[in-house]
Specification:
The chain has 197 residues and is α/β, with parallel strands linked by helices. It has five helices and seven strands, in the order αβαβαββαβαββ.
């Protein structure tokens, strides 16, 4: 079977992670779920110093800890709380990833919520180092996911292009409201633009 690069957004995201994460130090998984995104991030971040991991469900924290410890990853800080509480992170951030929606294999009624997701993103933006990357995957196929996606799109679209670069990845010829991924980069100081963020 031939490899199909564009049949799944994960293929493209994996490719981007290999590029983005080489020199990143302070990483955050804002929705650690079952730990697979955390593992993907760490495998592509050879120079990381810390990974903070958020989830409100203790099952998600336990699942993620089990996976990462099986690979002997160190300096992982597990936070069983909402991702809109950044009080445990003492440093500015180089990379963050959100995989919104519900925990696979768990109660589908327990989903990320528009209010806390937006609060989290807004707080995160002022904690980013220059050159930092945020990746946000939304799932508009369910009601709360559709609300999240619409609000995130409107918010990211409004950001100052002198400070942030933002792109959106989505399948435009697929049925059933496929997921979308937004990628945000805080522009580097040497871009010639000044910012207060």
């Amino acid at each position: 079977m031939k490899y199909k690069f564009l049949d799944n957004t994960n293929h493209f995201i994996d490719y981007l992670l290999k590029t983005f994460l080489k020199e990143k130090k302070i990483l955050v998984d804002m929705t650690c779920g079952n730990g697979y995104d955390s593992l993907r991030v760490l495998k592509n971040a050879p120079n990381y110093e810390k990974l903070y991991l958020y989830d409100i469900q203790i099952k998600a924290i336990e699942n993620t800890r089990s996976i990462l410890e099986s690979y002997a990853y160190k300096n992982c800080i597990y936070l069983n709380k909402s991702h809109d509480d950044l009080s445990d992170i003492g440093e500015n951030i180089d990379f963050a990833i959100y995989n919104l929606g519900y925990l696979p294999g768990a109660d589908k009624n327990l989903v990320t919520r528009l209010d806390t997701t937006m609060s989290s993103i807004q707080q995160l933006l002022i904690r980013l180092n220059h050159g930092a990357i945020i990746m946000i995957t939304t799932y508009p196929g369910h009601e709360e996911g559709s609300l999240e996606d619409g609000k995130i799109y409107d918010y990211l679209k409004s950001l100052d292009q002198k400070i942030f670069n933002v792109i959106k990845l989505e399948f435009i010829n697929q049925m059933n409201k496929p997921c979308k991924t937004y990628i945000l980069e805080k522009r580097s100081e040497d871009d010639g633009e000044k910012s207060n963020l």
